[in-house]
Design brief:
The structure holds two protein chains of two kinds. Chain A is mainly alpha-helical. Helix content of chain A is 72%, strand content 1%. Chain A has one domain (22-365). Chain A contains 14 helices and two strands; from the N terminus they run ααααββαααααααααα. Chain B is elongated. Chain B is built from 22 helices and 23 strands. The chains are: A mainly alpha, B alpha+beta.
Chain lengths: 371, 663
């Protein structure tokens, strides 16, 4: 019995190694991004090889997971979807009851490692929306929109309550993109955006004081020199002093002289902008746009509605990372804990992103066969 | 739905998706363009401005942690203060080779293994640009030697800080508690903005429960730094707001007297002002030196404390649970009056044995042959078990536990310390949760004398006797009576209104129980202890001698050796004074005492003596109680000659409320 399982496992692994079913352009794009990330991290982390090595190890782990998941056909994923969604939402409830974390309960301690269930939702959320819309008549009517809204709102509220607004935003965006891609009528989108916009003053009252402070410091960074205001000012000095061509690799004074806090994690893009200037920023954005575009192309080629919506939503939510982090570093958006994908130092985010791309690879491998 | 699904159009959907994906991609390119325009404005339009800001960027904000509030007793005696000290700090980011640095640094400033262990632990938990303390409390010699060698150690600095000191050592270890280094778990719990630059946090006692009040708000200064990150000058300072000072209601003199009266025997005492719930003394013996914890206790010291069988780290006042024995009897009698089950004159015949009808099992009185016909006052005076067996049966377990819960038995008293035990108040609900059997009438019987499932903390007993002494008006016990911010001229008293209406409906009910508790002292179970001799006020009280083990045989224990009995008994005494206008109530527990009144009683008396002294009233007379006396007799006031008490109780009229269930 065990012997047979071993044989099957070995065969499975050999198949992955010998005939990886991946989309080469997407894989190359990701590889380039990871390389840029490690180079930037080396400079931002003061040439610490331990830091770079740790991040590289995460990329390797993420890459292996990507290859494994690319072997799982989308139809299997679709069958698992409700369970995965329910399981990850349940974990959120568990975290809400007995989690731990710095001033926020978002971690689940597994003994060997701590892990953040909200990270799972970044993938299971678009899966669930796609699963729900898959058998339905598209474009969706109000009833289906309402159900999807509920599917998004429950986990998003749990995450926002942790409180982790950044992740709540990413998770809801992923679900909303699936809905958008399903062809939801423009007038309905308009009505929804209007309604959500009308809710903003109400939502303001539900924010924690420190969250309101973050928004307010954005308007007047000098008011908070010990906290986020300092981040915003120092980050803008880093970006602005980089100029068009940048100060050159390893020549970022802001992080080197320790003026820029969190310069390996959430604010690493400020170091990148300082060292590589506007040219580097634009080049990196082009790389991100290429990856997102490739995701959407894979989505268009996908075999069924589920795969299409899922692939499109994963690709488009990638954009939210870039936009929110890039906006935060440039002092355009409030400081929320959203990393620059594949560039910021940090474990769970890099791994979960690569897992998401594993799903895309699987969808690509099972694309429509052209006649 | 089914019909709609049947007309699902895959080709149309695919086309719809294609259009949406294109529109989505265009929108998202627009978003990226928006970002790029922002970066252009920063990096091109305002480039020169930011370059000049970057090159002149030499000002950093540096946090100034607030000074922790001080703690005083009710008369302003210092219980916890801050003393300036210096520590060695390392910024990991600025150190190229940490192991080599530690070795070299060790040659200049000796580093102990404990220092290194704590440092390495904290190193893994903190961010690379945050400085990590390496060695606390540097001596002047060490500071001087480091100063000479400082150039060799970039990233290492001597930093002044305020360290906590507890001048009275172990005396207040269980009340004031202690602070200790912030660890990883604390970092999760504490507001990072408020605790920036703070190395210590309240770990136990008042230091823990009043952490928010004591901590204060950090300030900051803007400093100019050079390329090494070393401070050149301070440009501007925004001072921190120190934490508030606390004034405890405890009196150091009473606390000292109480601790001395225990003479090292494990136990606990608490004295409460029944008029407002203020705690006047709170002692748990044995104790420990809280100063050991402040700068990181060594492994040897710590395991010494935790492995000590006497458990010095446990605050017995709120965490020790013991069978209450006869101490509950006055409260139960009051319940009988309040529920209208008993009138004061109702009598019971005590024959030495009380049997439930239809059962062969009988419950004993402590005196062979019983106390004869007793009314309520006499039942309290003689601690007659039979009276309370009957009373408990007539009340029934439901009313019994409902009534006793109003004294906070089986619940928290609400004192301003964390970690109170709730003990056990026998009830059907409690038993249903802990046993598969139903409630037996026999269990009601023994609940009437404070045995069986009963478990109480000394604080619960103290709170109960204070509540009774205050004519039934309950107050949550309070240790902190006032706070004072630096800006305030006078300490601001903390309000502590009664936690509910009086438990007693008729003043005459109170008088009956009071009479019984007076009689305990003058002619009852407490007579031989001569607790009121030479004391300026009338004392009322009740002893309790609870058994630690259940009785194995029917026979009365004839071994009257005190040392032997002490291994079997918990000695309780609860009392208040003046009996006509109670101003202080106290409860004392000795973990190993032969008899409640003779062993625990004198400790209560010592506390009362110190209270009278503190009040500045008539000096009490030391009657050479069977304890190593610590208070000296005041000459000239000797009204009654001191008398030596017999080493052993001469008669057995000290009632033990025995768990007299015999098979």
């Amino acid at each position: 019995m065990i012997g047979a399982m071993q044989v099957r496992l070995r065969r499975f692994l050999r198949r992955i190694m010998t005939r990886p079913r991946i989309d080469l352009p997407l894989a190359l794009g990701l590889f380039a991004l990871a390389t840029v990330g490690l180079i930037t991290l080396y400079s931002a982390g003061d040439e610490s090889l331990a830091l770079v090595g740790g991040q590289a190890a995460r990329f390797v782990l993420g890459g292996v997971l990507l290859l494994l998941i690319s072997r799982i056909p989308p139809s299997t994923l679709r069958n698992w979807t409700p369970w995965l969604y329910a399981g990850s939402t349940l974990l959120l409830v568990v975290v809400a009851v007995l989690g731990e974390g710095r001033g926020a309960s978002r971690w689940l301690n597994l003994g060997v490692m701590r892990f953040q269930p909200s990270e799972l939702l970044k993938l299971t959320m678009p899966m669930m929306v796609a699963w729900y819309l898959h058998p339905r008549q598209l474009p969706p009517g109000w009833k289906d929109i309402a159900v999807v809204g509920l599917l998004i709102a429950i986990p998003a509220a749990l995450i926002a309550k942790q409180p982790d607004l950044g992740t709540a935003l990413l998770v809801s965006a992923a679900g909303a993109f699936a809905l958008f891609l399903s062809g939801m009528a423009w007038w309905r989108i308009g009505v929804l955006i209007g309604a959500v916009g009308g809710m903003i003053p109400v939502g303001w009252h539900f924010l924690h004081q420190y969250q309101r402070d973050r928004v307010l410091t954005l308007l007047n960074p000098e008011s908070d020199p010990l906290g986020n205001g300092w981040h915003i000012i120092q980050s803008q000095i880093a970006v602005g002093s980089g100029g068009i061509f940048g100060k050159g690799w390893q020549h970022s004074t802001q992080s080197r002289l320790d003026f820029l806090p969190e310069h390996t994690t959430d604010f690493i893009f400020a170091v990148f902008s300082e060292e590589f200037g506007l040219v580097g920023v634009c080049a990196l954005f082009v790389l991100y746009a290429f990856i997102i575009g490739r995701c959407l192309w894979i989505a268009m080629e996908a075999r069924d509605t589920y795969s299409r919506l899922l692939a499109g939503a994963i690709g488009m939510s990638f954009f939210v990372y870039v936009f929110v982090n890039g906006g935060m570093v440039a002092g355009m958006l409030p400081v929320v804990g959203v990393p620059m994908p594949m560039v910021s130092y940090g474990g769970t985010s890099a791994v979960s992103l690569l897992v998401g791309f594993g799903v895309l690879m699987s969808i690509h491998a099972n694309r429509k066969t052209h006649l | 739905m089914k019909i709609r699904r049947s007309i699902k159009d895959p080709r149309g959907e695919s086309e719809l998706f294609r259009r949406r994906a294109v529109v989505g991609f265009v929108l998202l390119l627009l978003g990226l363009c928006l970002l790029v325009s922002r970066y252009m404005s920063l990096q091109v339009t305002r480039h020169n401005e930011f370059v000049s800001r970057s090159t002149s960027n030499s000002v950093k904000p540096r946090v100034i942690p607030p000074a922790r509030g001080l703690i005083y007793d009710r008369n302003g005696v210092m219980l916890a203060d801050n003393v300036p000290a210096f520590r060695l700090e390392v910024v990991p980011e600025q150190v190229k080779d940490m192991p080599a640095l530690l070795v070299e640094l060790g040659n200049v400033v000796p580093l102990g293994q404990d220092d290194l262990d704590a440092f390495k632990k904290q190193l893994t938990q903190s961010r690379r640009f945050d400085s990590v303390p390496l060695k606390m409390r540097l001596t002047e010699d060490e500071i001087a030697r480091f100063a000479v060698n400082r150039w060799r150690f970039p990233g290492v600095d001597v930093v002044p800080y305020l360290t906590r000191r507890y001048p009275l050592g172990g005396l207040f270890a269980h009340v004031v508690g202690y602070v200790s280094r912030i660890d990883a778990d604390d970092l999760d719990r504490l507001d990072p903005a408020r605790y920036k630059g703070t190395s210590h946090v309240g770990r136990s006692g008042i230091e823990r429960s009043y952490e928010d009040v004591l901590h204060g708000t950090p300030g900051y200064e803007l400093v100019e730094v050079n390329a090494d990150g070393r401070t050149q000058r301070v440009l501007q300072t925004y001072p921190p707001i120190p934490g508030k000072n606390l004034y405890l209601s405890v009196d150091v003199r009473m606390q000292k007297a109480a601790e001395a009266a225990f003479a090292g025997r494990p136990g606990a005492a608490v004295a409460i002002d029944p008029r407002n719930g203020q705690v006047l003394a709170m002692v748990s013996v044995p104790t420990f030196d809280p100063n050991l914890f402040v700068n990181g206790i060594s492994q040897a010291d710590y395991s010494g404390l935790t492995n000590d069988p006497a458990k010095p780290l446990v605050n017995r006042v709120l965490k020790g649970v013991y069978p209450p024995g006869s101490t509950v009897k006055p409260f139960l009698a009051l319940g009988g009056l309040e529920y209208g089950i008993r009138r004061p004159g109702d009598t019971v015949l005590s024959t030495g044995q009380f049997c439930l009808p239809g059962q062969t099992r009988c419950y004993r009185d402590d005196d062979r042959g019983g106390n004869g016909v007793v009314d309520m006052v006499r039942a309290i005076e003689k601690s007659t078990n039979t009276y309370f067996y009957k009373l408990a049966l007539d009340l029934g377990i439901d009313r019994l536990s409902a009534w006793m819960s109003r004294f906070s038995f089986g619940g928290k008293t609400g004192i301003d310390l964390l970690g109170e035990s709730e003990g056990v108040l026998p009830s059907r609900e409690w038993k249903a949760k802990h046993s598969k059997f139903g409630w037996f009438p026999g269990e009601t019987v023994i609940a009437g004398i404070g045995q069986g499932y009963w478990a109480v903390t000394p604080l619960q007993v103290g709170h109960a006797v204070a509540t009774f002494a205050g004519r039934g008006v309950p107050y949550q016990p309070r240790l902190v009576m006032a706070t004072k911010a630096v800006a305030e001229a006078q300490p601001q008293p903390l309000a502590n209104p009664p936690s509910g209406p009086s438990l007693i409906r008729k003043a005459s009910d109170w008088d009956v129980i009071n009479e019984g508790m007076r009689a305990v002292i003058t002619s009852g179970t407490g007579k031989d202890a001569k607790l009121n001799d030479g004391f300026p006020y009338l004392i009322a009280g009740k002893s309790g001698t609870a058994e630690r083990f259940s009785r194995k045989s029917e026979a009365y224990d004839t071994n009257k050796n005190t040392a032997y009995l002490a291994t079997r008994h918990r000695a309780w005494f609860e009392a208040y004074t003046p009996a006509d206008d109670p101003q202080i109530a106290a409860a004392v527990l000795l973990e190993s005492g032969a008899w409640g009144a003779l062993d625990a009683g004198p400790i209560v008396r010592k506390i009362f003596d110190a209270w009278v002294v503190a009040k500045g009233g008539v000096q009490p007379v030391d009657t050479s109680l069977p304890n190593p006396a610590t208070s000296s007799p005041s000459p000239g006031n000797q009204a009654v000659p001191a008398e030596d008490l017999p080493a052993e109780p001469s008669s057995s009229d000290e009632a033990t409320s025995s768990d007299g269930e015999t098979p």
